[in-house]
């Protein structure tokens, strides 16, 4: 049984970011790109097209099934080549020091509902967070079943309407709670929420995920992409 549509996350994959990162890696002397595990959750076909078009000489895939699939699309792949391109650089998993590099994946959810939370009231099971003041919280799609790791509760943030808000309480299976940080805050059902990636404040949030969980950016992106509905765009 699949994840209910109402609680699914989306992985927005940028072809232009993939192409730009691959071109830069090739210019630095990289020859073989690592596209195993469905291109680290970015989608093998879209990543293969972008990487090869950018001038990378070879791509490494998981096995003969992937080689055959890409051959049917007119693309050449290899199941034995040794990658020499850093996947963190290829997929833009860590922004440059000046924040210019754009991640190839933007992971999103959406607001399901909002409610007032009074000072002293708690959220989520275990009551690991209690409001320090009257505020508004939003229930948003994405939980540990979608690779929004439980350790992110009380330790990570999301972007909503261009503003940064903390995830509070324990992350549940399919949802988590965000503090909008004001009793007058407004968020509408269906508003998009960005967990990491994009061009706004969430651009660098994957680093926050890595710090909170102990997982590498590669592990986090791969799991998130494989559990989300992927949408390809520019």
From TrEMBL:
<dbReference type="GO" id="GO:0030170">
    <property type="term" value="F:pyridoxal phosphate binding"/>
</dbReference>
<dbReference type="InterPro" id="IPR009006">
    <property type="entry name" value="Ala_racemase/Decarboxylase_C"/>
</dbReference>
<dbReference type="InterPro" id="IPR011079">
    <property type="entry name" value="Ala_racemase_C"/>
</dbReference>
<keyword id="KW-0663">Pyridoxal phosphate</keyword>
<dbReference type="GO" id="GO:0030632">
    <property type="term" value="P:D-alanine biosynthetic process"/>
</dbReference>
<dbReference type="GO" id="GO:0005829">
    <property type="term" value="C:cytosol"/>
</dbReference>
<dbReference type="Pfam" id="PF00842">
    <property type="entry name" value="Ala_racemase_C"/>
</dbReference>
<dbReference type="InterPro" id="IPR029066">
    <property type="entry name" value="PLP-binding_barrel"/>
</dbReference>
<dbReference type="InterPro" id="IPR000821">
    <property type="entry name" value="Ala_racemase"/>
</dbReference>
<dbReference type="GO" id="GO:0008784">
    <property type="term" value="F:alanine racemase activity"/>
</dbReference>
<feature type="domain" description="Alanine racemase C-terminal">
    <location>
        <begin position="104"/>
        <end position="233"/>
    </location>
</feature>
<protein>
    <submittedName>
        <fullName>Alanine racemase</fullName>
        <ecNumber>5.1.1.1</ecNumber>
    </submittedName>
</protein>
<keyword id="KW-0413">Isomerase</keyword>
């Amino acid at each position: 049984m699949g994840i209910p549509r109402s609680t699914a996350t989306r992985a927005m994959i940028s072809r232009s970011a993939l192409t730009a990162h691959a071109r830069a890696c090739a210019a630095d002397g990289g020859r073989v790109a690592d596209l195993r595990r469905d291109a680290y959750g970015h989608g093998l076909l879209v990543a293969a097209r972008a990487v090869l078009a950018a001038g990378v000489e070879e791509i490494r895939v998981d096995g003969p099934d992937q080689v055959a699939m890409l051959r049917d699309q007119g693309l050449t792949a290899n199941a034995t080549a040794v990658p020499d391109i850093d996947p963190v650089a290829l997929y833009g998993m860590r922004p440059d020091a000046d924040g210019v590099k754009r991640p190839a994946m933007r992971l999103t959810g959406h607001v399901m509902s909002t409610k007032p939370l009074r000072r002293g009231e708690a959220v989520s099971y275990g009551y690991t967070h209690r409001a320090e003041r009257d505020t508004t919280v939003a229930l948003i799609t994405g939980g540990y079943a979608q690779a929004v790791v439980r350790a992110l509760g009380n330790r990570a943030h999301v972007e909503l309407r261009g503003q940064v808000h903390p995830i509070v309480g324990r992350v549940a299976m399919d949802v988590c709670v965000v503090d909008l940080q004001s009793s007058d805050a407004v968020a509408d059902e269906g508003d998009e929420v960005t967990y990491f990636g994009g061009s706004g404040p969430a651009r660098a949030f994957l680093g926050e995920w890595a710090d909170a969980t102990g997982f590498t950016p590669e592990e986090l992106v791969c799991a998130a992409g494989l559990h989300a509905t992927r949408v390809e765009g520019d």
